[in-house]
């Protein structure tokens, strides 16, 4: 079993910039968080992250009587973690357009979803166009901010009343706010200020990496439908094809949602189209999802997804996290997010699609 480093980020690190109501395709808007790269490279690189259920701004998670137990996994901490793990990439966190009951992430702007965030995939929902325009709008907004810009708060995140609930850690122990907020990311330290000048940021032509964690993987799944739609039905759409060609890697991190199917894409045509693109595919899973006896379809679908991509000779790297006999807890699920980059760095050529543990 490979040794894993548990990541940590100190609370005094520079916080990501919050950009509210960023416009994308035909009036669709998303709140975003942005952190510039800490290492200068050309062409510039961008990592776009789609998070899972309960992941939100820290003050919103802190005020929730259940989600406060997991507040260290808030979107700001994730941005810092990704910044440290991928120093050459700008980090863009896309907040869901709707979070039902402050818990269920619904990515309606990318894929039609019900109130639990379960997707209804379609050949096209203009998710590619929305993401491309969202990135362009973020770049335009960044040119207008000061250097370095002050953090901004969304309207719904005004100072809240002190939490009236008693918030305990998942093991039942009472914790302080500081302990709960905690930190995550890589143990490596990052510069307090980015060497990239704000007025020289150029996202429009950047190389793009897409990362989905848990529920956020529904966005990546919808992208597969739209890759296929664009390649087969609208091959003359040169703008969409150029954007697809900018995507160099996709990360599925322990994907899951409350629906009874389509947690992982298994359609041969869609996966064959994906395999023909010049992308590297990373799959990180844990027993929490793929060995859940109450949801056996998740494991079956993921196996088909990974096996077919390997059959089609796609560049796929698959990693199984955790031990089968360990409790299948939400903590196990989040540890995939905390450790996926360190695991890859320890074994960068892993391509085994079996269920070997690491």
3D structure, described in words:
The chain has 358 residues and is of the alpha/beta class. It has one domain (17-346): Rossmann fold (3-Layer(aba) Sandwich). It is built from ten helices and ten strands. The chain has an eight-stranded mixed beta sheet with strand order 1-2-4-3-7-8-9-10, with helices on both faces. It has a two-stranded antiparallel ribbon with strand order 5-6. Strand 5 and strand 6 (104-106) form a beta hairpin. The longest helix has 17 residues, at 330-346. The radius of gyration is 19 Å and the shape is globular.
**Derived structural class:** alpha/beta
CATH superfamily: Alpha/Beta hydrolase fold, catalytic domain
Q: Please provide the ordered H/E string of secondary-structure elements.
A: EEEHHEEEHHEHHEHEHHEH
Number of strands: 10
Shape: globular
Poorly predicted regions = 1-12, 153-165, 185-194, 351-358
The tally of structural domains comes to 1
Keyword list:
single chain; 358 residues; alpha/beta; Rossmann fold; 8-stranded mixed sheet; two-stranded antiparallel ribbon; disordered C terminus
Layout of SSEs?
Layout: E1 17-23, E2 29-35, E3 45-50, H1 58-62, H2 75-85, E4 89-94, E5 98-100, E6 104-106, H3 127-142, H4 177-181, E7 207-213, H5 217-232, H6 238-246, E8 247-253, H7 268-276, E9 280-285, H8 287-290, H9 296-311, E10 315-320, H10 330-346
Parallel strand pairs: 3-4, 3-7, 7-8, 8-9, 9-10
Antiparallel strand pairs: 1-2, 2-4, 5-6
């Amino acid at each position: 079993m490979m040794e894993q480093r548990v990541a940590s980020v100190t609370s005094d690190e520079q916080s990501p910039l919050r950009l509210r109501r960023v416009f994308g395709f035909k009036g669709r808007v998303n709140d975003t968080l942005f952190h510039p790269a800490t290492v200068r490279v050309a062409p510039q690189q961008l990592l776009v992250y789609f998070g899972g259920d309960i992941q939100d701004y820290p003050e919103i998670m802190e005020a929730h009587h259940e989600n406060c137990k997991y507040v260290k996994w808030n979107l700001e901490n994730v941005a810092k973690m990704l910044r440290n793990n991928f120093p050459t990439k700008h980090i863009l966190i896309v907040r869901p357009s709707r979070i039902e009951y402050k818990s269920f992430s619904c990515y309606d702007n990318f894929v039609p979803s019900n109130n639990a965030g379960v997707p209804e995939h379609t050949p096209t929902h203009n998710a590619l166009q929305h993401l491309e325009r969202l990135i362009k709008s973020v770049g335009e907004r960044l040119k207008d901010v000061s250097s370095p810009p002050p953090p901004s708060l969304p309207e719904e995140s005004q100072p809240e009343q002190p939490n009236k609930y008693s918030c305990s850690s998942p093991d039942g122990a009472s914790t302080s706010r500081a302990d709960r907020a905690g930190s995550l990311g890589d143990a490596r330290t990052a510069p307090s200020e980015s060497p990239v000048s704000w007025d020289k940021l150029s996202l429009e032509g950047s190389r793009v990496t897409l990362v989905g964690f848990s529920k956020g993987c529904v966005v990546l799944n919808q992208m597969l439908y739209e890759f296929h739609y664009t390649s087969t039905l609208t091959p003359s759409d040169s703008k969409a094809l150029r954007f697809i060609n900018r995507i160099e890697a996709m990360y599925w991190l322990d994907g899951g949602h409350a629906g009874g199917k389509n947690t992982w894409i298994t359609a041969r045509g869609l996966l064959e189209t994906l395999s023909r693109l010049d992308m590297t595919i990373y799959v990180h899973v844990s027993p929490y999802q793929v060995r859940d006896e109450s949801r056996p379809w998740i494991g079956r679908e993921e196996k088909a997804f990974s096996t077919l991509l390997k059959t089609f000779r796609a560049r796929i790297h698959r990693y199984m996290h955790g031990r089968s006999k360990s409790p299948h807890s939400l903590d196990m699920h989040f540890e995939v997010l905390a450790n996926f980059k360190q695991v890859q760095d320890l074994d960068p050529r892993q391509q085994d699609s079996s269920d070997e543990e690491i």
